[in-house]
Structure formats: structure tokens, C-alpha cells
Automatic annotation (TrEMBL):
It is found in: Nucleus, Nucleolus; Nucleus, Nucleoplasm. It comes from the Eukaryota. May play a role in ribosome biogenesis. Belongs to the NOP53 family. This is Ribosome biogenesis protein NOP53. The keyword Glycosyltransferase does not apply.
Length: 458
């Protein structure tokens, strides 16, 4: 701001500067005598400094910028003056044809709404900014380099390949709506066939993207609603009811075996229990000191001076003759190993029949394993998978004992819950993970305080 103000002051100091505001007249002398004030003090700068002439000058400069778009002294004569040739010359066009009627003038309302300030608007820096400008510039530079080498980008290759396929294929001719051979459109029928470029149809959402085959597979082969066995009826047959009771009995026996197994694993061995004697030995241990006499070693046990000297003595350096002998022995061993392998390959020629039998046996074993693996995979499709930290627990079988079977439908007592049955079915079909009800856990412990009631005070 200071630099712009200084430039305007310098421009106004030029001899050709013109004042647009006529109210400013600096030619008149100031009648009042200027007061002498000490301006070394800061408090007197604004109090006794007369800057009215500077303010008037700046107002005049701003007025010229708004009205004429700049200082009048800087403008050429062609923009300030014109040659008046009369009204007749104004109504004559360049080709010499006389205009008919009055010249068209803008409406008054348009002149009011027109922008009258000639000061250019400030530059909007944000309008010139572009997100990811450096990244886009690098991509453009890389594309130019690849184009100079003759390498096309992947997107361009795909477009050219698609264009070539479209040119080779026969164009599909769509019939007009009023054509008699056009197929009849059934409003209540199925989806009509959409003709056109598949890429265009996918991009315009007129044709759905091909659904992956994995999403069409069901998470479990079990049905959504499992039918209860015939033994669970309110008036079942004897044999079907006994079969259901046997199944429930096997489930209970399996649970009991698991509980007994846990009890056996957690049982304490009586032999490992502490007795009075073992407790006393543990208490006394370390209090009594036993004197151990070191027995002298026999002559043959201890290390001799000769052995220690041989161990500490450094190894002697091998001679050239020893190295050559070792190298020859090593090459001889390698040659024997190669001859042994060659002899083994030759012997295999006479074992072709046994090798074929072994290969057939191996193929048969592989096929059996593959069949077992497929059977195991098919069996696992009907079993609940481990989807969370909890295992799926099958619900108890809803079965009535023989003496609990009602005599009529009116005396039948309802058992189970439809909501729980559906919830367990979702877990069994791997649609949701097994869950359990969240337990309330108190964050802070309860604090009990004894308070003295005012009534108990005598």
C-alpha cells in the first residue's frame, strides 16, 4: 500500500496531472498562520500534522480510477476527445445507406443495472488453482514422453482394442418404434433385451455389471426352515418317537462324557499331595550342612600333561604333497559317486514294470484322497463355520417323554421359542456369527458407608 501511494503521489507531482474534482483548489493561499509545534514527539504527529491535501489528492485519484479507469493525464487524446461531424453523419452507415428511424438506445433500467466502475476487479487467486496440479503435470509430462517414444497408455490401448472389436462385429440395427417387425413390449412381462454396445450400457447403468459367481453361492447347504422329525409330533408313532428319544439320549451321553473328561483332567493326584514328612523335609532343607569329602582321582581319570600339551599345541601346516593327495582322493570319490548314480539309472531300465505298478498305485491313492477331500468339503458345507470368537452351540432337542405325550391337542403344552429357533437357524447357516448376551460389568466397585441417622441420637 505504501508503494502504491508513493507512486500516485509521484504521478500527481508531474506537471501534466489534471484534477477531476473541481472543488479542490490549492491555488488559494492559507490565511491562517501555521503553528509551530515540536514534531520530535510522537504524540504530536497526528495531532498537529495536516494531511488534508493528501486525502483530497487520493480521493481525486480514486474518482478518476472509478470514472475513467485510470488517471486522465495518462490517457491518450483519442480516448478523451472526438470530432463532432453533426447529426446527419451519425445516422449514415459506412456503406452510405441512410438509417430509418431513431438510433436504438439502451433502456434506462439496463443503464442502472450496468456496472459503472471502471476499476478492474481483484484477481481471484483461487480460480487459478487446480487440485493435484503437480501430479497432473507429472502425468502429462510422462504421457508426452511415452508418446514421443511411440508407447500408448493402457487406457488408450483398451479404447483402440474396443474400437477394433466394434468394427469387426456386425452393427446391430435397431428398428423404429412404429416398425411392424419390432417385437411387442409387454409391460407386465420380464426384462426386455437391451441392444447396444455393452461398454456403453454398463457405463450408463442400463446394463448391470456381471455378478461374480462367488456371490451366488449360499454360505450353507442347510434349508432355511428345518422340518421337525416325525417323532416330535403331538401324537407320534411309537417307533419314530423312540428314535427321537434315542437321538436325544445320545446327545446327553456325549455331553456327560465331555464333563467327565474335564473332571478327570482337573482331578488332583493323591500321590502328589503333600504329607507331614514332605512338608518337614521342605522346611528343614538348607538348614543342615553336609560335608562332602573330595575323593582323590585315580591315575587313569585325570588329564595328563601330555594330552594337555597336545591340545594346546597349534596344528601343523599341511605340505603340498598332502594337499595333492587329498585332492586326488576327493576327485576319486566324486567319480565313484557319479559311476554309482549312472549304474542306478541303468538298473532302473529293468525295473520299468515295477515302476509302472508303483505309479498306478500312487495315482489311485491320489484319486482316493481327492474323493475323500471332496466328501469332506461337501460335509463341511452343512456344518456351521467358525465366524467369531465363540463356537456354535446346537440347541437342545425339543422332545417329550412317553408319559408326557398329551392325549389331545387341547392339552398340548407349547415348548421352545420361534424367535430363538430363527436366531439359531441364522447362526447354523453361517449368516451371522454366534453371539451371547452382553454381561453387565460394573465399572466402579460399590462403596458402603454407614451414616448415623439423626433420629437415633438421644
Amino acid at each position: 500500500m505504501a508503494a502504491a501511494r508513493r507512486n500516485k503521489l509521484v504521478a500527481a507531482a508531474q506537471p501534466g496531472f489534471l484534477n477531476l474534482n473541481t472543488s479542490l483548489d490549492h491555488s488559494l493561499p492559507n490565511p491562517s498562520r501555521r503553528k509551530r509545534v515540536n514534531k520530535n514527539k510522537k504524540k504530536n504527529w497526528n495531532k498537529h500534522s495536516d494531511i488534508q491535501d493528501v486525502e483530497d489528492f487520493l480521493d481525486d485519484v480514486r474518482l478518476q480510477e472509478r470514472a475513467t479507469g485510470g488517471l486522465i493525464s495518462d490517457k491518450p487524446d483519442e480516448t478523451l476527445f472526438f470530432v463532432d461531424t453533426g447529426e446527419e453523419a451519425k445516422n449514415v452507415q459506412k456503406d452510405g445507406v441512410q438509417k430509418k428511424g431513431k438510433a436504438s438506445r439502451p433502456l434506462r433500467i439496463d443503464l442502472i443495472l450496468q456496472h459503472d466502475s471502471l476499476v478492474p476487479p481483484p484477481k481471484n487467486v483461487l480460480a487459478y488453482q487446480q487440485p493435484n496440479a503437480k501430479k497432473l503435470r507429472r502425468i502429462a509430462q510422462k504421457a508426452e514422453q511415452l508418446a514421443a517414444k511411440g508407447v500408448l497408455p493402457r487406457r488408450q490401448k483398451l479404447l483402440q482394442r474396443r474400437k477394433a472389436v466394434a468394427e469387426t462385429e456386425a452393427p446391430v440395427q435397431t428398428l423404429a418404434n412404429n416398425h411392424p417387425d419390432r417385437p411387442y413390449y409387454d409391460l407386465w412381462g420380464g426384462e426386455s433385451e437391451i441392444n447396444g454396445d455393452p461398454w456403453y450400457l454398463e457405463q450408463t447403468k442400463k446394463k448391470l455389471v456381471k455378478r461374480p459367481e462367488k456371490l451366488n453361492e449360499k454360505p450353507s447347504a442347510l434349508p432355511a426352515v428345518e422340518v421337525i422329525p416325525p417323532g416330535g409330533s403331538y401324537n407320534p408313532e411309537f417307533f419314530s418317537h423312540q428314535a427321537l428319544l434315542r437321538e436325544a439320549h445320545e446327545v446327553e451321553v456325549k455331553k456327560q462324557k465331555e464333563e467327565l473328561k474335564v473332571e478327570r483332567q482337573l482331578a488332583v493326584n493323591r500321590e502328589d499331595t503333600a504329607t507331614e514328612e514332605t512338608v518337614f523335609q521342605e522346611q528343614v532343607e538348607g538348614l543342615l550342612e553336609e560335608e562332602e569329602e573330595e575323593e582323590p582321582r585315580e591315575d587313569g581319570e585325570g588329564p595328563t600333561e601330555d594330552t594337555t600339551a597336545n591340545q594346546s599345541a597349534p596344528r601343523e601346516k599341511k605340505t603340498e604333497k598332502q594337499r595333492k593327495r587329498e585332492k586326488a582322493e576327493k576327485e576319486k570319490d566324486q567319480q565313484k559317486q557319479a559311476e554309482r548314480e549312472l549304474k542306478g539309472r541303468r538298473q532302473q531300465l529293468f525295473q520299468l514294470r515295477s515302476i509302472k505298478v508303483e505309479l498306478k498305485r500312487r495315482d489311485l491313492r491320489t484319486k482316493q484322497r481327492q474323493a475323500q477331500r471332496r466328501a469332506r468339503q461337501e460335509a463341511q458345507k452343512s456344518l456351521p463355520r467358525r465366524l467369531g470368537k465363540l463356537k456354535f452351540q446346537a440347541p437342545d432337542l425339543e422332545v417329550q417323554l412317553s408319559d408326557e405325550i398329551p392325549s389331545s391337542l387341547r392339552t398340548l403344552k407349547p415348548e421352545g421359542s420361534i424367535l430363538k429357533d430363527r436366531f439359531k437357524s441364522l447362526q447354523k447357516r453361517n449368516l451371522i456369527e454366534p453371539r451371547e448376551r452382553a454381561k453387565f460389568k460394573r465399572r466402579h466397585k460399590l462403596k458402603y458407608v454407614e451414616k448415623r441417622a439423626f433420629k437415633a441420637i438421644a
